[in-house]
Specification:
The complex is a heterodimer of chains A (431) and B (493). Chain A is of the alpha/beta class. Chain A contains 13 helices and 17 strands. Chain B contains twelve helices and 16 strands. The chains are: A alpha/beta (431), B alpha/beta (493). At the A-B interface, helix 10 and helix 13 of A face helix 10 of B.
Chain lengths: 431, 493
């Protein structure tokens, strides 16, 4: 039984990426290269062949047939990863608000929607995807919305595609849960929330151990649907991380204790007050996905919210993945603002190198794809960006964006509108 | 530009001088569309305001420029200060490199390459850093939607009726909102707090200085005119779908019906005030606010996303003879930027928000730039407590987006989007919004060029008083709410 699940997971985890359209050698030369897994390289070369990085260094021989990209005076980095988005899952505010679509959440049962796979509803031609890529974001995590157990997230590459599966890099990456306020939406209190989780985990084990009896109808009523129990098996076995949105310091400690007690792999999302318990988080080797643009005590769970959170966590040895927690839209329309988040993290104490790492290699490592993306190194997939300057600076632009070794010239809807109104459109002119 | 005058005690002397709260020697900087942009003057009714002196307790009379909740703001203690060796974005002219600015008696006393400072002046070596005017946000809900976000404090939308011109945002402002000190720490010194956008006509706004106070009156910007919040489009018709307006056409009918009533009210009261004999007309708070708009004493701030709706709002304003001071949110301002320029209407817009509902679908990052180059007075606003702390970053994003689109815009222009232009929209550009002699000493010292993501505020002055100093955490403003709730960690914010 368990073996079957492992096989299924393994199959999901090693998705065959869409093949590169045409064999091509690209040499990005002369730039300052930030490989992230090593020191920066002045006047460096990044050599790309058939969608893969094949060489990175100061003395890389450029084949005669290579297409050369002159990056003198430019900065070359791995493509950025925004690890907390709903990109491609919603448009125009959703059906309730404005009549668009919203595929971020499942109805679930009593707050549990573990079997929900967010990427299954992904729209590859969602209009926010191209603007994200055009500002250097090459991969994002698409995650379900709230609920005690919201469902499974996936890591996708921002390639042009007609089917979501072409974009997948790793699915699932984690089971998403929302601690919420006061107790996760489907509960009334913190104590009830944790009790419900314990019941749920016990029932997953009961289901797993007596599946035949369950199928034969010889089972007591379990705490979740068959599909959701099934989906939680890899979480219970510690294979799939449980990513919990949790802010209050005492709640973070409770989550750490819960994860330890049940040998779960925990990620903390948000973690407004994580800095207060940074040592405990570091000791538990739990990564924190947090931002650097929120200092507002938005509710009674995040009274200690501060912009230095990321820097303080990192200083304590916690693995930090920077995600948006700023003014808004960073999960869809402004996925691109992950670089603003990184810049602000630097302004509030994180080193520049660590900030870059927190949106490239750190998320790749946490999600188990460091052998594929997140750095500039031979053998990795070529998610590479050539910047006009410091990528965190507002004055810089992403001049070349490679995803899986390809550039894309598809114009965004926003670009088309801009071009239409640079001068009054002829159709709107009158003599 | 002349401010509408309200006979506060503080301002009476200045009213006599003909210019509320404005120093006589101040000439506002030229803005993109000065000629086409009438000031919110109201000469005839100002005369009425002066001749019909309100009697204490006379709450039944509807008077122009009445001020029943007068500002009690007084500047904090200040010291004569000179900041030298600093790059100065004046908000008015070109960047002054390695210049100096002198703050004296709460005003800008001198600014330039060099200034003569008295011997007793506090000298701050700017070390090649940057100074800007205090940033101004035309669209804030601080205090009316405070943090933490609790049901008990959702005081920004009187969503019980589509026309609620009778409510005043200031009566919802909680001065202990911990978002205020964070805004100040972000370099924002003046904000307009508006009612929300649930209603066609949401109520009066108030312009506040971002300062500690036990009362909202203690934050009110002396001499600033009131604003009126109006809203187009999806929000009102969604909120009132069951009782109406449920459509855009009913939205428009709703505005017009309100103005028809207000115009009648204004006529009746102006006639009575001109000849105060016999029984006065009945006072009505809804019509009173609207009548003040018709008299030009209250500035219209109109939440409106779509170009086509903005065009209709312009026609409504013409039908009833009022002016729209600023369209807020205007994600499609770029489509009608030429019209906004011609009509003298400013655009208070976001740098990069859009897509979150149908009417926001056409939001583009070049909106600010395209609107600016068409000659409309362009403003980067927030509508968000987090965003409002980083108006400089938002302006910087818009600047690059404009340049990517091929538009020629200077760094100084971008600073104007968050200083002098919003000051104009709030009717306070004679006294703040730029670093010019005689204006209020509202300014920010930045650790680096404020258009850089790495720049942080170091010091913030309002009326010459240093109210934020990143280096001195002992003086840090903490709201009553924060005591015992929000950890006090010295250097935070």
């Amino acid at each position: 039984m368990r073996t079957n699940m492992f096989l299924r997971l393994a199959a999901l985890a090693t998705i065959a990426l869409a093949p590169v359209a045409n064999a091509q050698v690209i040499a990005i030369t002369g730039g300052t290269v930030y490989p992230v897994n090593g020191p920066k390289i002045e006047n460096g070369t990044v050599l790309i062949r058939d969608g893969k990085i094949v060489a990175v260094g100061a003395n890389v021989a450029v084949p005669a047939d290579a297409r050369r990209i002159d990056a003198r005076g430019k900065w070359v980095t791995p493509g950025f990863i925004n690890s907390a988005t709903s990109l491609g899952l919603s448009e125009a505010g959703g059906p309730q608000f404005s009549g668009g679509y919203d595929d971020t959440g499942a109805r679930g049962t009593d707050g549990v929607a573990a079997s929900f796979e967010a990427w299954k509803g992904l729209n590859p031609v969602n209009t926010f995807i191209i603007p994200s890529r055009q500002e250097g974001v090459t991969s994002v995590v698409v995650a379900p919305g709230g609920g005690m157990v919201g469902g499974k997230a996936a890591l996708i590459d921002l390639v042009d595609a007609t089917a979501a599966v072409e974009m997948l890099r790793r699915a699932p990456t984690a089971m998403i849960g929302d601690f919420g306020s006061p107790g996760g939406g489907s509960t009334n209190s913190r104590a009830e929330y944790w009790a419900k989780w314990r019941t749920l985990l016990a029932d997953v084990k009961a289901y797993q151990g007596r599946r035949a009896a369950y199928e034969a109808g010889n089972s007591r009523t379990l705490a979740a649907s068959r599909a959701d129990l099934e989906a939680l098996i890899p979480v219970v076995s510690g294979q799939m991380p449980l990513a919990l949105s949790v802010d209050r310091a005492s709640d973070i400690l409770a989550a750490l204790a819960f994860a330890k007690e049940n040998t779960l792999r925990l990620w903390i999302l948000g973690g407004a007050e994580a800095w207060m318990v940074a040592r405990e988080i570091a000791a538990a080797k739990v990564p924190v996905f947090t931002g650097a643009m929120n200092n507002i005590p938005v509710d009674f769970n995040s009274l200690g919210q501060r912009q230095e959170n990321a820097a303080m966590l990192r200083a304590a040895g916690v693995t930090v993945v920077l995600v948006g927690n700023g003014p808004g839209g960073e999960e869809s329309f402004n996925v691109r603002n992950i670089r603003q988040e990184a810049g602000n993290a630097v302004a509030y104490g994180l080193s520049w190198d660590e900030a870059l790492r927190s949106i490239t290699l750190a998320p790749a490592e946490v999600m188990g794809v460091a052998g594929q993306i997140g750095a500039l190194a031979a053998g990795l997939d070529a998610n590479v960006v050539v910047w006009s300057g410091d990528p965190f600076e507002f004055s810089s632009v992403a001049e070349q964006v490679f995803v899986r070794g390809r550039t894309f010239d598809t114009k965004s809807r926003q670009q088309q509108l801009t071009e239409r109104y640079l001068t009054l459109p002829p159709g709107y002119r009158r003599p | 530009m002349i401010q509408p005058m309200r006979p506060t005690r503080l301002l009476l002397a200045l009213v006599a001088a003909g210019c509320a709260a404005a120093p006589a020697n101040t000439v506002p900087a030229q803005s993109p569309v000065p000629a086409a942009t009438p000031a919110p003057t109201a000469t005839a009714t100002q005369t009425a305001a002066v001749t019909v002196t309100p009697k204490p307790g006379d709450g039944a009379t509807s008077r122009p420029n009445a001020d029943p909740f007068p500002s009690t703001y007084a500047p904090f203690a200040s010291r004569t200060t000179v900041i030298r060796n600093v790059n100065i974005y004046t908000g008015a002219g070109p960047l002054i490199r390695n210049g100096a600015v002198l703050l004296q008696d709460g005003k800008i006393a001198a600014v330039g390459a060099t200034v003569n400072a008295p011997a007793n002046a506090v000298v701050i070596d700017g070390q090649g850093k940057y100074v800007t005017p205090g940033l101004i946000d035309t669209h804030s809900h601080l205090g009316v939607y405070p943090a933490p976000g609790t049901a008990a404090h959702q005081d920004g939308n009187e969503g019980t009726s589509p026309v609620t011109a009778y409510v005043w945002a200031e009566h919802s402002v909680w001065p202990q909102d911990p978002q205020f000190p964070r805004d100040l720490a972000g370099g924002t010194t003046t904000i307009q707090v508006l009612p929300g956008s649930a209603n066609l006509i949401g109520g009066r706004s108030v312009t506040l200085k971002v300062v500690p106070s036990r009362s909202v009156q203690g934050m009110k910007f002396p001499g600033a005119p009131y604003g009126l919040k109006m809203a187009c489009g999806e929000n009102p018709k969604r909120v009132y779908a069951n009782r109406g307006p449920a459509t855009r056409m009913a939205n428009v009918a709703g505005y017009r019906a309100a103005w028809i009533g207000a115009e009648q009210y204004r006529r009746r009261w102006d006639a009575w005030l001109a000849k105060p004999e016999g029984e006065p007309p009945a006072r009505d708070l809804n019509n009173e606010t609207l009548a003040e708009v018709l008299r030009g004493n209250i500035l219209v701030h109109n939440h409106c996303y779509q170009a086509d709706e903005m065009m209709q709002m312009i026609d409504i304003a013409k039908e009833f003879g009022y002016r729209i001071r600023s369209f807020h949110h205007g994600v499609e301002a770029y489509k009608i930027a030429d019209v906004l320029a011609r009509e003298g209407i400013s655009a208070s817009i976001w740098s990069d928000w859009g897509g979150f509902k149908m009417e926001a679908l056409d939001g583009i990052k070049a909106n600010v730039g395209l609107t600016h180059v068409a000659g409309a007075r362009t403003i980067v606003h927030s509508d968000d407590a987090s965003y409002s702390q980083r108006l400089n970053q938002e302006a910087a994003k818009s600047l690059t987006a404009a340049r990517v689109a091929g538009l020629n815009i200077s760094d100084e222009d971008a600073i104007r989007w968050i200083t002098l232009n919003p000051a104009w929209a709030l009717g306070i550009d004679r006294v703040t919004g730029s670093l010019e002699v005689g204006k209020n000493a509202d300014l920010v010292l930045w650790s680096a060029n404020p258009l850089s993501v790495y720049a942080r505020t170091e010091k913030v002055w309002i009326d010459g008083a240093m109210l934020f100093d990143r280096a001195d955490t002992s003086q840090r403003w903490r709201t009553d709410f924060e005591l015992g709730y929000v950890p006090n960690d010295g250097g935070r914010r």
